[in-house]
Amino acid sequence: MTESAKRLPAEWEPQAAILVAWPHTGTDWAERLESVESTYSALIAGITRFEPALVLVADAEVRNRANQLLRQQGIDTDRVRYLQVPYDDTWLRDSGPITLADGHRFTLNDFRFTGWGGKFEASLDDRIVGELVDRRLFAESTHRHIDWALEGGAIESDGRGSILTTWKCLHLRHPDQSREQIDAVLRDTLAGRRVLWLDHGYLEGDDTDAHIDTLARFAPDDAIVFQACDDPADKHHEELGRMRAELEALRTPEGKPYRLHALPWPKPIIDEGRRLAASYANYLIVNGAVLVPAYGDEADHEAARIIGLAHPGREVVQIPCRPLIWQNGSLHCVTMQLPEGVLA
């Protein structure tokens, strides 16, 4: 595979499957397992309407539990493939493979996963990509282990060589490296032509140190969907306003401004005195559809409408994600798409 032919596909390009990991009592979900299982059931129901789901399970008991719940929801389990793999938690956006494509050949980028800068135990999650490779899950591909910390939620690709990310996250992962050094690593490992940096934007309660997939997302035809805050009294208002100004200043490879789609701001969700990181930008694109977080907020439907406008021709499916944000992530964070052709 030549370096020049590789690229990181955009999420809206054809996919082979979506990878998820089923929550169980050995994960941090144990305290609220039943409610989060209901979200996973809805999520997998949404995925399997459009493409297969690859579901990691820790053991046979977890597999049987997942299969039982999915069948109770009327889900076509013929579209579900279970893989028994050990894992610490279920955030596969950050621990799963970041796949580069070159025609029918692939590179499975296996970055070091540190539990978001050492916040949580991550030794099992850091081995997930290798475990999947050992199980011969993938077709003609190269397993590229990269001893450099990067999570999939920290980057966005337009499929044309532009990588969108945030300085806060990458700087905290690599405090001894300059922006120029980090930029060079991203371009090398992700086959990028350029890196677009955001210096502003955050969500209270976010463990990821401002992952881009909670803030701003590339969309087809030179568009960006982003989380806005229209409440001047909210502590996010100024910072997300500065982020919007940064997005307005970005240019496409052809030198044109991006078409921007601002998402509505949900009301604060407080749980046990803690504000949860609810973002509509954390949606998942699948073949023929876009799965959109819903939080039981009056802004849910407007967010779904705007995301649908940014992704024309795709059905919009709302997934109840309030249980997910208890652990400070949402729909996109617990999934990883696998590009068409990569599976054996």
From TrEMBL:
A Gene Ontology molecular function term of the record: agmatine deiminase activity
Keywords from the UniProt entry: Hydrolase
Domain of life: Bacteria
Keyword Hydrolase in record: yes
Keyword Repeat: no
Gene Ontology BP terms: putrescine biosynthetic process
Name of protein: Agmatine/peptidylarginine deiminase
Organism: Dokdonella immobilis
Lineage: Bacteria, Pseudomonadati, Pseudomonadota, Gammaproteobacteria, Lysobacterales
